[in-house]
Amino acid sequence: MIPVSGPPPETDPYQRQLAEKFANWRLTVDGLVARPTSFSLDELKRFPSRTNITHQACEEGWSFIAEWTGVPLSHVLNSVGVNPTAKFVVVYPYDAFWDSIDMLDALHPQTTLAYALNGQELPTPHGAPLRLRVPRQLGYKSFKYLSRITLTDSLKHVGDGRGSSEPAAGYSWFAGI
Questions:
Q1: Is 175 a member of any domain?
Q2: What's the burial of 56, exposed, middle or buried (CB within 10 Å: 0-12/13-18/19+)?
Q3: How many domains is the chain built from?
């Protein structure tokens, strides 16, 4: 059994999407890009996919190995035209949390926007409809329930300026393994 960390967002927008089986869900990609775009799940699934069997380690001490399928984040970023001044990718889910990774991790071939887990549609407890998978970092960097991705040159003016909502809970911004 794959452990689950935290419940799905209870926000009205997420609950509406869940009730509609994500039929009208879209991922917005904006910020320092040439072509700000909003992608449906079907559009993302038409991009080249990648399947990785990777280990996910949690800072709390549990871990698991699973097969994740999705589109490489680098492919999505290339399709919107990343501005050369972009240094960070900020991800926003349907709740108050947010996180970021640097461009090196964002462009890594294993970093994916996952829509399937172990050959099945991504289950709600694991981030449906779309989850960022960053296998080179601890599990909390693999953010669930994505709604928006923004590229920026600095994290100083995002949230509290620490690169994530996680440092307030005692976690590091960089969680490399």
A1: no
A2: buried
A3: 1
